[in-house]
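#lab-general

N.A. 3:47 PM
ok so I finally got the sequence cleaned up, no stray characters, all 296 residues accounted for. can someone with queue access submit it? mine expired

B.Y. 3:52 PM
send it over

N.A. 3:53 PM
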Amino acid sequence: MNKYVKEINGIRTEIIESHGVGTPVFIFHGNSSGASAYVDLLQSEVGDTYKLIAVSFPGHGESAYYREDVSEVTIEKLGEFTVDVVNSFGFDRYVLIGQSLGGHALLESLPAHANAAGLVLVSSPPIALSRLGDAFLADPTDGLLFKGELSEQECARFGKAFVQTGSIDKLQELITLIESTHPQFREQLGAGLGAGKVLDEVALLKQSDLPCLMLKGEFDRFLNSAYYDTLLNDDKIKADVITFPGAGHAIQVDLPTAFEVVVGQFIANVTSANVSKPAVASSQESHESQEVHVNG
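B.Y. 4:20 PM
back already:
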């Protein structure tokens, strides 16, 4: 891997790249996480094949926070950051992966990602202000998602809410990322959401013809599994959904091998010469819900 800092609109931004030289794949993480959460994927066969580029949002990992005074952080603002990052590399074609908040940021900036070949949404179904109650379960962290300073015990509780079966070492890595996140980010993200500043991500996905794959953990404590069914029942949403049995919100932590296989297959399919085939190889029609059965 290659880790370095790249300045994006005045923000020193942590970037971690794999050694692959194939199609570039940008990875954007969730709230209070960071680029290093995807080290296993970057060091996998997928990372050896494709140029995986994991990015830390402002105030996360080793990225600096916003230099200007900000009273709130919106998903749309984070989406603009993803566009700035991608454009700074100048690639003609690339794939996007967004987990949780990172996926929502990509959805809210989707029209600006005109050169994307495919989109993977990890624990990140498209939402709209009117659908928040349908998409989310009661917050298992009791408000820690949007609390500034966190105690050591609160960081541990926050991290444990993300995983179901992941290793102790990987859980500790998540907790360390939570501890290192700039506290103002969570507060200001909460302010933006509290002000109702959420774009209609469902409509944005409907308007896009980008191949899309949604990944969900069977035991995700944040998301309502039934919400995915309502999305699939909408004929205008062209996406597949894959469930990872036994996984929580952080699928790449609970089932890293299965995650690698599914993501690698999607990238291969959307970047192949035959772009008309389904995003996920299957004997059934596309636009469906599936389960993955690969040892984690």
